[in-house]
Structures are given as structure tokens and as C-alpha cells.
Amino acid sequence: MIEDRPLLLEPAEIAQVSTLLLSAFGEIQHLDPPYLDWCYRQNPAGVAVGRNAWDGGRLAAHYVTVPLRAHVFGRQSRGVLSLHTATHPDYRGQGMFTRLAEATYADAAAQGYEFVVGVANASSTPGFVTKLGFQLVRPLDVRIGLGAPAPTGPLVDAELERVWSPDELAWRLRCPAREYRRVATAGGVMVYAPTHQFGIWVELAARPVDECDRGGALDTLQPLGVRNPIRLWMGLDPSRDWAGRPWLPLPEFARPSPLNLIYRDLADPGRTLDPDRVRFAAIDFDAY
């Protein structure tokens, strides 16, 4: 008999989760126990909220969210970011993802979390939207170009914008799977991540991050060291004006999958986001 249980986050369980994730996503080799321990247990915003399905001592399926803070509809709220999900091949087609996800959201709501946000690919978006009641907010913009991206400005009446404390930023920049670099600009310090493809670097943040770096996490990063790299930007930021800049939308054929921002409100199930009042960047989820 298959039993659904909340995550325990003990080393033995994390090792089993890692084995399942690596078997499902073999191309994503960083999903090892040190990475999962960092992601699930060390987050200053809170430990992961999720569920596992067990068939005796065998892990049949896994779903997890990780806590975050954001300005949502005019006030700071606690929410969770939908992250990893996997089902062992022997148990697929039994509705485990939907069951584990609904139980996870009930657990999150009981712990005071008010919303779920995530970035879904083409294959997972229909399940989130049709089976779990998520809003498909908008596909993320993905642009590639030279030189600094368009400057970002104030976003009046933002309906969703992630908040980073110094401790949370330091944790984010300690990701064991990445080697981030910093770039000083006229507006502040930006963080970049390598794509390991054609010398392209991803701008991680939508805004300079030195304003919330009282802990000095940026000082631990090496300078980018590339004078004029090809840069990639992904996210939503309605304050940016790209007109007249050498930045172009990345063609669909060059993207491995659309990146769709999805949202589900746990405090007010009828509430949805206006895509033109959302700011969301690569630092806010786990792509890099």
C-alpha cells in the first residue's frame, strides 16, 4: 500500500530523493544530496514543504516547495516556490503528482504560507493549470544581447515581487551547484551566472542586489572578468524599456522549453495576478 507522508528532511531521506530526481532528470546532475540539503534545509525563509509517496521502503514519488517572501497585493507575504517533482517509472499514471501537490499546499496553508508561485515548462504547465487550479500568468521574457540590459525602475503597485533579506541573499549565492560572478554598474552590483554555452552569461537579478547585501555576500564573489560578454536576461519586469538597445527576444527554437510563470493563491483562491504588475527574475527561481 502506498503511503503519502510529509518530508522529514533527514540525510537518509534526502539521499533517496536525490536518487529519484537524478533518475528522472539525469541531465541535471547537480541534484545531489549537498544541493538538496542546501535547498531544502538551509533556506533562512524556512525549510522545504513537500510530500513523498512511499511503497514500503521504496520512494515512489516526490514533490517539494521551498519558502520565500514577496510583496503580494500591497503587503509582504510568506509563500512557497514550487520546485522539484518526480515519479518513479513504475508508479506513473496513478495521479501521484496531483495528490502530493494538493497535500503539500494544504500543509503550506496550515503553516501560514499564503501563495504558491513557480516556473513551469511546456509539459508540466497543463497539469498545474487544469488539475491544480494555477493561473498561467505569462511566459517569461527571454532576451539575449550585448551591453547592460535596460535599467529597471520602480514598479508601482506591484502585485508580485520577491523580497530578499541579507541572510536569504547570502544563502542564495551559496548555491553549491553554481559559480556566480559580480559586475559593478552605475546603479549597483549585479550578479551573473554562466550558461556554459557559447560564453553566454545570465543576469540573475532584476535589480542591483547590493542594497540588501549588508551581510557582505557579494564580497565572496569573483568579478565577471569578461569585458563585453554575450548576456541573457529572463524574467518579467514591466519597468524595463528595451527599445533602441542591442537586445533581442531569444527565438522559440533556441529555447529548450517555454518558461511559464504560474501562481496559485492559498489565502484568497479567487485572486489572480496582473502580468503587467509582476517583477520576477532568474534569481527568484532555480534555473541558475
Cα-atom radius of gyration: 19 Å
As for the number of domains, it is 2
CATH architecture tag of the largest domain? 3-Layer(aba) Sandwich
Topology order in helix (H) and strand (E) letters: EHHEEEHEHEEEHEEEEEEEE
Q: Output the CATH homologous superfamily of the largest domain.
A: Gcn5-related N-acetyltransferase (GNAT)
- Helical content band: 10-25%
Tertiary shape:
globular
In DSSP terms (H or I, runs of 4 or more residues), the helix count works out at 5
Report how far the terminal alpha carbons are from each other. Answer: 38 Å
According to CATH, what is the topology of the largest domain?
A: Aminopeptidase
Main sheet makeup = 16 strands, mixed
Quickly give the structural class.
alpha+beta
Q: How many distinct beta strands?
A: 16
The CATH class assignment of the largest domain is Alpha Beta
Proportion of strand residues: 25-35%
Q: Mean pLDDT score, rounded? A: 92
Low-confidence stretches: none
Characterise the protein shown here:
The chain has 288 residues and is of the alpha+beta class. The protein folds into two domains: 2-139 and 258-284, 3-Layer(aba) Sandwich (Aminopeptidase); 141-254, no CATH class. Helices cover 18% and strands 34% of the residues. It has a 16-stranded mixed beta sheet that branches. Strand 10 (188-194) and strand 11 form a beta hairpin. The model has no long low-confidence stretch (mean pLDDT 92).
Attribute tags:
288 residues, single chain, 2 domains, 16 strands, Aminopeptidase, 16-stranded mixed sheet, globular, alpha+beta
